[in-house]
Structures are given as structure tokens and as C-alpha cells.
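Extended Data, panel c. Modelled sequence:
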Amino acid sequence: MQRGQSVEQQFFSRQNQQQLFNVVAQEFQKNQRAFTEKQQGRLVKTLDHYMREVWDTNGPMPINDLNREVLGVTAQDFSGYLRRDSNMPSLSASQTIVGDARNQPQMELASQRLALQNGVQIQPRPTFEQSLLQDTGSRFEQLQQERVGPKETRPTPPDFQISMTSSADEPSAVSLFESAKKYREEEASRVAAIVTNTQTDANPLLRFISPPSIQNDPNLNPTIARPVQPIVPEPRGPLPQDYIIKQDDVISYRENEYNLVLYSADRDWYNNTRENRYTFSINFDTGNNQQGFNYSPSATKKFKNISRIELVKAILPSEGLDMLVTKSDATTYVPTAKLNVLSYPYVIVRIPELDGNTYGTDNNLDNSFGTIQYDANWYTDTTNLTDGYLGMIPKFMKCQKVYWPTPLATLTKLSVELQNPTGTTLSSVADTLTISNVFLSNEIPTSSPNIVSALYGPISGAEYGYIFIVSSTFFSQWSFAVGNRIQIQGLDASQVAGGTTVAGTSLVQYLNNNVLPIVAVANTTVPADGLNKAGYANVLIVRGPYGDPTTGSIFPSYFGGSTGTQDTLGTSLKTTTFTSGKLINLTHQTSLVLRVITRELDPTARVRPDNL
């Protein structure tokens, strides 16, 4: 083949097809069997079919590998076909192959030439006209001869008996023995060379045809005729009973249930100004593995193989979400009406990571995890019902996300937003305030800002007991109310006028390190205790530290250790404006309770109950 030709051209060339056909024909005709016209046509079609199949499957492999695959599958398929064909004749060296060579393809002509080289006579098949003129008896006899064929005759073994009448010109028995032995050795060498060359050419037919029965042993008895090599039947393929199928281990699972509580105040509310108590996110298995005030609330538990997540309940503050101010007369305003979550028929819980099984007539319900309704309430002030909490549950509904059949690998983040039926957040009012000033009750400023407090102003003996915290913005009466607990962060003692003092450091540490209840509220619009006409205020009043209440003393614990140092601190605070420091109302925070069900392997399936 030319080197410039591609693998495909070489593989499908007529020369390569002729070579493959000759190899298969030679291997099957070694056993003194010849092909009929039908079998030759079947071999050509089989060879052409598997050449295309091998090329489509293996592609541009080396041509030797492609030929090896074609020869293997062709020999296996054609061997099975010959076993099924009961009309295959068994011919000897003098038998005739019947066929008409005038219109046969090139492959059949090559097969006939191969038969002539082996000493087989080729006789053309009678034409169609000659077959019509034959009588039934002659035609039947011809078919019988084609099917049965002549009997095989064994060669006459050489006579090694010493003839008493033989002349001197006749060969002796020893020479006859040596001649037979030499023939035997030459035949064994020829067979060994054929096997070696076939293995060198990587002929796959060796996998299907048994090696020659003549062994390379010159000492064999030369009087025994060379046995005829029959075609070895195709090896039996593997059957199911040949394999021992190991049964899979019995694996059982169990479901573990975990309660997950999300608390909105655990976020980094000092730096995170984008979120509030009704809109926040939570991270799982954070890198620092810490709890507390992170940018977003985090849980150290990493849930794996989650099969279901469901919402149990939500705990919401009973704060007013909107201000409603009424006017009773020309100068009196009454901002007392409180509109909380109970003014809505339901609250939408939206968690984008959990697209649940809730559907509705608008996009707000379709994109929700579920809806919750009123279940219970409790108040700290049962008389005025100013502050308390509302328990909301998905009553009579399935508020869950099921992962089936494959569980969720892990959970990294949840984004929670509580919405009203219109799809907006329940309240966009921040639950944090920025601190601008801090004053002591013995030194309340009368201008910039002007604070007037009749209840917590300077009084004899207890004038140091209260702290006034002024925020940079006003807040509604429902955001920060009497009895709420606040937490402060970020106050810096170095910002106190006059530099850092012992009294200033003591005051800042007390405010930053304690959760303080609100004693009262005031405003600087119309300097007085309480709210302005619109129901807003900007001053929170908290209680300072006591000295020792167990002794009956009503005097506070002075910042700096004495009244003199606290007086100096109070004077400095009147001219101090803080640029850092924020506070949050811990009372008005939301909590969500989720149930997380994970799937884990059940070890009891492999542990005996008496394994103690």
C-alpha cells in the first residue's frame, strides 16, 4: 500500500479486502472444506459488513489493529453460519468445487484460484438452460453427489517389511524410514513457520482455530498418517452460572431531626446597614467557626444530606409597624393607635434558597416558602399591652422543602424576608440608632440640644443616677419604648472632651458591656419628657450603676470613684459629640424556628443488638 494514502483508503482498498478474504478462506479450507457459491457470497457480505462496523466503532486506528478486529468477528460469525448450514460439502483433494466463474465477483475468483493451488478441480456449474433440460433423476443424482461427496481415503502406510525378492535397485527399509522421518521433520518445520508468521502478523484467527496437531517432534512414529485438522467449534461464551454475583450489602438509613433557630439580632448590626429584623440572611459553617455578631448570623453546624427542611414557627415582636396619629382637638394629637402584624390576614415568609410548595394567585405567593398566621401572643405589660411577642405558624399547611430522591448535599446560606400580602417588607424602619451625645443627669444641657426632664433632672442625693442618650435621628414610639432592652457598641472614650479620663473610660465600658433597659424617652423638639406631637422622640434614658442597693443606699456608683470626677465628666460630656457608637433594640427582634431533617447511614443494620 502507498504511504501517502490515508488509513481509511488503505483499509477499504480492494487489495486489503482481497487479503482479508484470502486469509479467512485459507483458514477454513485447510480442513479440506470448500465453499459453495452461497457460502462464498455470505463470506463476502459478512466481511464487508464487519469492515464498516469496525471502522465506525474504532475510527482511524492502525490498519493492523483494524484488520485484527475484522478477522476476529468475521471468523466467529462465519463459523457459526457454517455450523447452521447443513448443506456444506466435505471435499477431499480430488473433489470438485461447483460454480460458474463467468459472473462471480473478484472475491470468489480469488477463492477459486486458491482452491486450484491446493489441487482442487474447478468445474463450472450447469447453466440455467442445461438445468432445465436435465431429467429429474439426473438432477437429483447431481445434488446428492454435491451434498455427500466421495469418501475420504487414507493414504497407504509405507511397508517397512524387508522383501526377500527385492532387487538391489529397490530402496531399503532404512532408507524408507529415513525418508519418512525427513518428511516428518520438514512438515513440522513448515507448520511451525506458519504459526510463527501468523503470530507476527497478529492474526486474530488463532483465537478461534486450534493449533496444528502435528507437533515439532521428529521422533514421532512416521508410520502414522498425518491427522486431519477439524475446525474447532466456536468457544462457548460465558453463561450466568459461570459467575458468582456477590449480593450488595444491606444499607439502611435513618433520619436525624435538628431544630434550627434563626435570631435576627445575631447579625453584625453595627456595620450591616442593609438588613433589619425582618430582612436578614444566615450563613452555615463559616470559615472562622464563631457565633455572635457577624456580618450575617452564622451557624457552626454544617448540615449534610438534607432530605427535608420545614418551617415550624416564627416569633415576631408586637411592635407597631405604622404610625397613626389622630387629633382630638385644636392642639391635642393622639398617636396611640398601634398597627402590628395582626392587621394583616397572613405574613409571607420568603426564602429564595427554599422554593417551597406554596402557590397562589400572584407572584408574591408563588415565590414564597410559605405563609404564617396568628397562633399565640404574650406581653410583658398585660395592662397596657405595649410590648410583647406574637407566635405565627403555618397553620394547617405544609411549609417545607423536600429533596427527593437525592438529598441536598449541604446548606450554605439562607436569606429570610418577612413580607405583608402586598409583597413588601413588614417594616423598613431600622432597629438600630446612631449615638450623637451622652449626658449625665447632673449636667443636662439647656441648649444644643435642649433637654428638659422633670423626672430625671438634678435632684438632691440621686442626681447622678441616670444617663441620657441622644440619637442622631428621631424614632417612633413603637421602635423604642419603655421597658425595651438596648445594647450599645462602638463608643470611644478618647472622643470625650478633654481627652481620655478614668471617669470617661468607666462610663464607656459600662455602656458598651451591658444590656440596658429603657427607663423613659424624651425629645428635644418641644423639650420635655415623652414624645412630640407626631409620636417621635430622640432621647433614651437609662439607669446608671448603683453603689450597693443591698445596704439600702440610693446613691449611684460614681464614674471615676467620686462625685468630683463625675462632675468633671458631666461637664465634659456637655461639649462632646460622638462620631462612633450605635445601639440596637434587642426586644424588637424576630426569630424563626426551622426543622432540618438529614439522612445518615444507620449503624444498627450492621451491629448486633447484643454487642455490648
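The first helix runs from residue 7 to 11. This feature is highlighted in the accompanying rendering.
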